[in-house]
Amino acid sequence: MDSKLAKRDTNACGECGSLYFADASKIMALCPECAHWLYGYSNCNHTMEQDRCLRCYWDGSVTSYVQSLK
N or C: which end of the chain has fewer CB within 10 A? Predict the structure, then answer.
């Protein structure tokens, strides 16, 4: 993973627990994936590499509730 990406601030998602780049989500406490499925915000166009999205740093985690919404 690019070292520039590793320097961005991260948050832990309150729903799925994944780390994500703080500036990648419209909701401070949710990763872009959970914010999308729970509240209808735009989702990240994930580009996964080494089990992380290069764009938002999400690790692919989903709760059973979010999975049921998909």
Answer: C
